[in-house]
Amino acid sequence: MYLVTMLGNLLIILAVTSDPHLHTPMYFFLSHLSLADIGFVSTTVPKMIVDIQTHSTVISYEGCLTQMGFFTLFGCMDGMLLTAMAYDRFVAICHPLHYMVIMSPRLCCSLVLVSFFVSLLDSQVHNLIVLQFTCFKDVEIPNFFCDPSQLLKLACSDTFTKAIVMYLVVAIFAFPSFSGIFFSYYEILSSILRVSSSGGKYKAFSTCGSHLAGVCLFYGTGLGVYLSSAASQSPRKSAVASVMYTVGTPMLNPFIYSLRNRDIKGAMWRFLRKTI
């Protein structure tokens, strides 16, 4: 699964960068989403593979904080980039005549930079919260990666207040992203319903079908992880939900964005033929 994820996302990045036809805002965001997915899955899976081989789930406290920081960084960046892609689809469908003016290269680069810095701030806030309540030499996590909720459960003092603070931080950083996606698709749906012909409706909706599937997969599995860790005390159920979120989503994204996209498939074949 790790090799498929790496190969699929690398192929998307190489196809977008090598094909001049794909130098558009939509594929610019898609290539950065693939880059974030590579970082996201590389934060957790290599350590999990080592744990399987060594039959040990111990990680140093410093290593745990480092892993958690990068995991939060790339996870938040995924959500922010999905929001930028939703805004891109909103402009393309609702304001097609002004698309190239609004989605200028300067705005696209600014959106990616804002996504990175907001994600970096989010990861540092998570680390600061955990540092306030936990301090160990070595940590044994009942999961395959250092999730903030798992670390708070290991704290000696009462963890209810800390968990509330942690979920509040998640909500503060996730709400703008989720509300931006919701607003964009509300406007997109309203615009599509005003189209008279069924062919026009299908063509308009098909341009954002892959992105909508990626949004549902990312937020659906992410919500499952946090709900399972909060409602269930079973480490096995939390681990299964975490695998779907941290491994399944980055692996499926290349299939979602390439199998339904003729431009990406054509660029990949041209890149592979040129390489061979």
Give the SSE map:
Layout: H1 2-18, H2 25-54, E1 58-60, H3 61-94, H4 99-102, H5 105-133, E2 138-140, H6 148-153, H7 160-193, H8 198-206, H9 209-231, H10 235-259, H11 262-275
Antiparallel strand pairs: 1-2
Helix pairs in contact: 1-2, 1-10, 1-11, 2-3, 2-10, 3-5, 3-7, 3-9, 5-7, 7-8, 9-10
Report what the structure shows:
By secondary structure, this protein is mainly alpha-helical. It has a single domain (2-275), classed as Rhopdopsin 7-helix transmembrane proteins (Up-down Bundle), CATH 1.20.1070. It has helices spanning 2-18, 25-54, 61-94, 99-102, 105-133, 148-153, 160-193, 198-206, 209-231, 235-259, 262-275; strands at 58-60, 138-140. A two-stranded antiparallel ribbon has the order 1-2. The radius of gyration is 20 Å and the shape is globular.
Largest sheet: 2 strands, antiparallel
Strand content: under 5%
Beta strand count:
2
Give the overall silhouette: globular
**H/E element string?**
HHEHHHEHHHHHH
Output the CATH class name: Mainly Alpha
Q: What class would the helix/strand composition place it in?
A: mainly alpha
Relative helix content: over 70%
**How many separate domains make up the residues?**
1
In the sheet with the most strands, the strands line up as 1-2
Contiguous helical run count:
11
Q: Alpha-carbon distance between the termini? A: 25 Å
CATH architecture: Up-down Bundle
Short description:
The protein has 276 residues and is an all-alpha fold. It is built from 11 helices and 2 strands.
